[in-house]
Amino acid sequence: MSSHDQRGPHAGPNVVSDELDRLLSWGIQELVGTAEPSPRVWQQIERKLRAGPSPARHRPRRSTWRTASLAKALALASLLVVLGLSLGPALQWPSYFYGGGEQMEMLTGTADVGLTQEASPPLMAEEGLLSGREMLLWIREQARERQMMAHDTSPGVDPILKHRHEWNTSALTP
Amino acid sequence: MTFPSDDQLITQIRGGDIKALEILYDKYKGQIYRTALAVTHDQQTAEDILQDTFLRLHANIDRLDGSVPIAPWLHRVTVNLGYNWHARGRRWAHSLEGVIENLVSTPHGSPERQAERTELRDIVQKAIITLSFNQRVVVILFYMNGFNLEEIAYILDCPVGTVKSRLHYARRNLRRRLEREGYWQPEVAYEFS
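Predict the joint structure of the above. Result:
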């Protein structure tokens, strides 16, 4: 497969290494020949472009949505941090924050500090606090991801246009 | 007469110049259409993909880096749209023979020579069609479009090693298929150019 380290067979005269390459190259060329699209394709493109909004109108909306989302995520994260730090070890987080405990504990609430201190060791509270931190980390991660997508100059928003960030442009220059 | 570069055209399109998009379309429509046609074997689908590719180009024109060649980007969109089409199960809706007859010009030479050529062509093309979609796309990009491995890796958004592997297995599968049909013996030179 020496030719496979080079450009494809039509890029240069010396890269066709064997008969199979030539056969495949010929077969594919014959398959499509010199087929051209019908003129109506451009007419349809032109009609759609003239009828639709300009591309510049799309982006601010997407950006606004992302900013709003980011703001909400940050506000929620801040709230969780404040709650976690102010209540500290006295807090017994509802079980749905860390996936443990009885359903009943959730229903009886976390207000009874005395009962909580007696019934639940500090570990329990720490678990809750850790879960809060984990959630904070998760929210930060989501926000960072959104931020990266917003700054992505590649056509990566639409899955159809997905783009590799590590693409080396020198590879394309002849 | 000097033609504007892709970079210049992209700048003009950003300014709302549809004529510039038409120039870019005229420049690339043939190769994009033929790639879509080779992938889908359906003229209508290939035209739809061509149309969609250029609409997406226009919609994302601000995101394009004009300093990078645009052909791989266009092929990436084309192939992704081809994948979507394939995933929806709308494959090989029309008979291969009908498509070939519509597309390929009549070969020259004696009737016997023409018959041989047609038979070999059909065998090769059927062998290509029996490849998995992933392998077929790599073969088309490599043998038809002349992209190198790195460009194909970019177009398919996968490592170069994956491209090499797909190309290797595609070639192996094609060779086996041709051997089964009695059309491939490495020591035999075929005259098909």
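Residues 1-94 of chain B form a domain with the Rna Polymerase Sigma Factor; Chain: A fold (CATH 1.10.1740.10).
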